[in-house]
Request: fold
Amino acid sequence: MTQDLSHIDAQNNPTMVDVSGKTATVRTAVAQTRVQLPPAVQDALLDGDIQSKKGPVFHTAIIAGVMAAKKTHDLIPFCHPLPLEKCDIEIQVDAAKHLLIQCRCQVLAKTGVEMEALTGASVAALTVYDMCKALSHDIIIGPTQLLEKTGGKTDHKKT
Reply:
């Protein structure tokens, strides 16, 4: 099985994937995470955001998610540093007053941006938790998943 893993070399040592021979193409990825808000946090929703002593929760989460996506290579050992050309985070409140956080990333590069999109969505969700934990610690984050990726060898779209 280890021979199928991209970050394990022939000697079973961890390694960064060599992308030097690849051609740069436009790569996109969309990731999503769900944040289940308990009633105490749901009650704080007003005009599409939550105002806390730390500031507007959703706006802060969007900024934190973009910052994290840009720093993914500092957080995950074998991720290549990528010059993100686009990173958008959208936070929607569903009918149950839970959050859907989507992060869409795009780059012209030799490797994909899935990890950046997943990191952006995850850190945005963690920021919501951090800013709302004074109201309740019963916030649940997840699932987090890749919805779509384009560019590279294969495209992927969650069905």
Observations:
- Residues 114-132 form the longest helix (19 residues).
- The chain is about 25% helix and 35% strand.
- The chain has a mean pLDDT of 91.
- The helical segments are 39-42, 57-70, 72-75, 114-132.
